[in-house]
Amino acid sequence: MEELVQHIINGLNLGAIYALVALGYTMVYGVLQLINFAHSEVYMVGAFSAYYGAHFLRLQANPGWMAFATVIGLSVLVCLALGFLIERLAYRPLRGAPKTNVLITAIGVSLFLQFSGQVVFGADPKLFPQVLEDYPLMRIGEIQIQFFDVTILGTALLTMALLQYFIQYTKTGMAIRAVSFSSRSAVLMGINVNRIIMVTFFLGSSLAGVAAVLVGLKYPKIEPLMGTLIGLKAFVAAVLGGIGSLPGAVLGGLVMGLSEEMVVAYLSSTYRDALAFGLLIFILLFRPSGIVGKIKVEKV
Amino acid sequence: MGVVSRFVPLLVLALGINGCTKKAEISASATDSKEIRIGQFGSMTGGEATFGQSTDKGIRLAIDTKNSAGGINGKKIVLITEDNQGKPEEAAAVVKKLITQDKVVAILGEVASTRSLAAAPIAQQFKIPMISPSSTNPKVTQVGDYIFRVCFIDPFQGSVMAKFSRDNLKLKKVAILKDMKSDYSLGLAEFFTKKFKDMGGEIVSEQSFQAGDQDFKAQLTQIRASSPEAIFIPAYYTEVGLIARQARQLGLKAILLGGDGWDSPKLFEIGQPAIEGAYFSNHYTTESNNPATQDFIKRYREKFGEVPDGLAAAGYDAAQILIRALEKIPHAVPEAIRAELASTKDFDGATGKITINADRNADKDAFIVKVQGNVLKFVTLLGP
Amino acid sequence: MIKLARGWFIVLVVALSISLFAGFFLNAYLQQILFFVAINVMLAVSLNLVMGFCGQFSLGHAGFLAVGAYASGLMSLRVPLFPDSLSYLNFPIYALIGGLASAAVGLLVGIPSLRLRGDYLAIVTLGFGEIIRVLLLNMEIVGGARGMYGIPGTTDAISCFHAFFWSGTTVLLIWRLVHSSYGRAFLSVREDEIAAECMGINATKTKVLAFVVSSFFAGAAGSLFAHTTNSLNPASFQFVKSVDAVIMVVLGGMGSITGSVIGAVIVTILPEALRTLQGLPAVRDQLGTVDLRMVIYSLTLIMLMIWKPDGLMGSMEWTKFRRRRAARG
C-alpha cells in the first residue's frame, strides 16, 4: 500500500514536469495550429545556458534563492531570445504555406538545435548547477515527499492559473484567443497578428526556460538530447488533455506522468515510452479533442 | 535555377564517388610503405563519450611513445581513429571502412560489449585482428579467432562482485537494477545473480531500466519495498549517478555496488554525494604497487595532465600488446599479428600481467575500489 | 506510360550493370554504400507514394522498415529454405516475406490512422513507428534490446544485383501505379479529399491502399537492410530514420519519383562523403572529432522548406523534363 502511495506521488511529480512543458506546446498550437517541435530544444538550450551561466558567474559557491533566481532569469532570457529567433527565421517565412511544409520545418529546427547542441556543448552529460538543495519535505512512514517535487507541481499549477487569467481577462489575452479562432478575422479587427504570435512564442519559451531550471535541479544530468523524449511526451500530454486548452495541458501531463509511473512499476520499464504513444493513438482514435477539449466539426 | 538544380545532384554524386574512390587508391599504395596502419573505433561522442576518449588517450600514449622511440623496426605507426557516436550500427560501418577503405592491419576497440559485438563479425570476416581493451561480455571473443581482449570477462567479474558482497561485506539480501539495452549489463547481472545465490545469498528484487532514462523512482520504489541491504547496478556511469541520487532521495540507505562500467570522472560529477561509499570492480587502481602501472600513470600525467582511469589503462595495454606483436614479426601481415597476439604471455601491462588464454581472453585480477570523495580507493584484489 | 515488359528489361539492365561495376571496382565499404543507396531509393519512393502522391503525412516509415528487416532476419535465422549451394535463392523470398509482413502491419496501422488529417496523422504515424520499435525492443525472440546478430547475407555482386533488382522494381511498379487510375485517385484525395468523396472515390480505401503498397516496399527494403548489415538493433529504427526518409522525399520533390531517387542517392552519399572530408587531417585539426553531418542535414531541410519547398524536381519527372526541353527547342 505504501508503495502505491509513493508511486502516485512519483507519478504526479513526473506529470508536473510534462505539464509545464505541455503548456508551451498547447499555447503555440492554439494560436498557430503548429506543433512546435523545437519547443523541447528551446528547453534544452535553457538548461545549458543556466549551466554555463552558473559556471561563469561561479554561482556554485553560494547556493540559495538569489542564485536560483539568477539561474531562472538567465534561462528564461536565453529561451526568449531563441524563441524569437526561431519564430522570425523559420516559422514566419512559412506563414500561409501548406501545413506539411511547416511541420517539416519544425522538425528541421528541432533536429538542428539537437545536433548543434551536441557539437557546441558536447554530447556527454553534464551536471546541472545545484543552486538549491533538495530535502525531504514530509515523511510518512516510508513515503517521501521532496521539496523539489512540491515546487514543480506548485509552479505548474500556478503558471496554469496565471496563464488562464491572462488569456481570459486581459486585452492581449483576448487578442490571442481571437487569433486562435481565425487570424484573418483578427486582422480585420485591427489586431497585429505578428505581434500576438510573438507574444505567444515569448510566453511558451519562458515556460520552457522555467521548466528547464526546475527539471535540471531535480534530474541534474543534462545533455543535448534531453529535450526530445520529454518534448514528445509533453506534446502527447497536451493532446491527451485537449490541445489548445491550458487546464487540459496540465491535466494531460498529470495523467501521463501517473500512467507512466504505474507502467514502469508494475509492468516493465521497457514499455515506458510505448505507453505515451499508445495513449496518444488511443486518444486520437476515440476522442481527438482530448479530455477537456470540445469536439469540432469540419465544415466544407 | 531550373537547369542548375538538375545538375547539382549529379555533381554531388560524382564528387562523392570520386572522393571515395580516390581515397581507396591512396590507401592501396600505402600498405607496404614506411608505415603500419592501425585502426581504432570508439565512442568519442555520444552518451558514453568518456569511454572512447579515455581509451583513445591510453592508446595514443602507447603509440606516440613507441613512435618517438623510432617506431617498429623503423616504421611509423599510423593510428586512424573513427567515432561510432555510441551506436552499434555506426561501429559496424566504421570498422568496415577502416578495414576495406583505410586498409588497417589491426583494430583496437571497443569498450562497450554491444558495439564490440557489432564490429567483431566484420573483423573476423576480413581476418583482421581486433583487440578490445575493456569489453567484458564473453560473447565478444566467441565471434572468432581473430578477436582478442586484454581484460577479464563478466562471468569472472560477476562472481567477483558476488564473492565480495558475501565474504567481505557479509551481505545476504541484494536487489539488482539492470540496463535492458546493454549486453554488458544483462550479462553481468546474470553472472552476479548465479554466484550470489550459489553462495547462499538472496536476490530480493530485480528491476530494469533503459539507457537514456532519467527517472528511476518507480523501479527504486519497488526495490525499497523489498528492503535490500545493497543494490547491484551493473550499468554505465551515465545512469548510475542519477540512480544513486534518486535512491537516496527515496530514503534508500542500501550499499551501492557496480562493475567496471562505472569508471569515469563523470561518475563523481553527477553522482556525488549520493554515490559516496559505493563499491565497484575495476581493471586497475591508481594505488597499485605494480611498477608497470605506476610508470603508465606517470607518463599519462606528463602527457595529459590528469590521472588516468581504468579505460585509459586498458587502452594503453591493448595498444602495447599489439605493438609487442608487431615487433616480433618481419612484416605487418594480419595472420602473423594474430598468431603473435595469441601467444602473448606474462606481458607486464598497466592493468597487471596479461596472458592471452585459449579463449583469447586475459586472466586478470579484479580490483575492488570504493568511492571516496572524488577518488577511487583500493579495497581488495580478487584473482581468478 | 511505360510498358511492363520494357520496364522489366530496363530494370534488369540497370541492376546488372551496377552490380558488375560494384563487383569489379568497389571495395566492401563502398559496396555497402551502394546497397544503402538501393535501400534508400526503395524507402524514399515508397514514402513518396503516401506523402507526395496521396498527400498523407507519414512520420513512421522507419517502423515498416523495421518490421520487414526483423521478419526477414528472423526467418533467415530460423527457417533457411534452400541449401547452402543455392543460398542466394533464399533472399528474394525473405524480401517478399519482409514486404508482406510490413504490408500487414501497414494495413493494421493504416485503417485506424487514416481517418485523421494533417498534423494528427503525422503524430499518430510517429507514434506507431515508435510503438513498433518498442515492441521489437521487448521481444526476446528477436533479441530485444541487444539486437539480432549473425544474419546471413553478403554485399557481393549477386546480392547487389538482387538489391538493385528490387530497387528498380519498386520504382517501376510505383511509377505504373501512379500513372494508372489508382494514381488519379491518389492525386484527387491529395488535392481535396471531400471533393474526391463527392466524385465517388472512397478516400479511406484509397489512402489505405497507398499505405499498404508503400509499407510493402519499405518492408522489402528492410529485408535488404537486414541482409546487408547482418545485424539488427531497434536503435537503428528510431524517429530519426523516419526523418531521413522524409528528407529524401522532400529534397527530391514530393510527387516526383525521379526526385525521390535523386534525393535518396544524395542523402545516402552525402554523409559518407562528409565522413571522408572530416577524416582529412586539416579538417580534423579544426573540428576535432565533431560530427557535423546531422547539423548540415537539418539545416538543409529548413532551408529547403523556406526557399525551395518543391524540392529539386518539384513534381516533375524525368520524362516530362525531357519533353519540356524538347518543347523549348
| Strand neighbour order, sheet with most strands of chain B | 7-6-8-9-10-13-14
Helix percentage of chain A? over 70%
Q: What are the secondary-structure elements of chain A, in order, as H or E?
A: HHHHEEEHHHHEHHH
Binned, the helix content of chain B reads 40-55%
Instruction: Please provide the count of β strands of chain B.
Output: 14
Q: Which residues of chain A form runs of ≥5 with pLDDT under 50?
A: none
Q: State the end-to-end CA separation of chain B.
A: 71 Å
Task: Tell me the greatest interface.
Answer: A-C, 42 and 41 residues
Enumerate how many helices of chain B there are, as a single number.
13
Low-pLDDT runs of chain B:
1-31
Give the rounded overall mean pLDDT of chain A. 86
| Major β-sheet strand ordering of chain A | 1-4
Structural class of chain B: alpha/beta
What can you see in these coordinates?
The complex is a heterotrimer of chains A (300), B (384) and C (329). Chain A contains eleven helices and four strands; from the N terminus they run ααααβββααααβααα. With 300 residues, chain A is mainly alpha-helical. The longest helix of chain A has 31 residues, at 2-32. Chain B is α/β, with parallel strands linked by helices and 384 residues long. Chain B is 47% helix and 19% strand. Chain B is built from 13 helices and 14 strands. The radius of gyration of chain B is 22 Å and the shape is globular. The N and C termini of chain B lie far apart (71 Å). Chain C has helices spanning 4-25, 28-53, 61-78, 90-113, 118-138, 157-178, 181-191, 193-198, 203-229, 239-252, 257-279, 281-287, 293-307, 318-328. Chains in contact: A-B, A-C, B-C. Chains A and C meet through helix 4, helix 9 and helix 11 of A and helix 5, helix 10 and helix 13 of C.
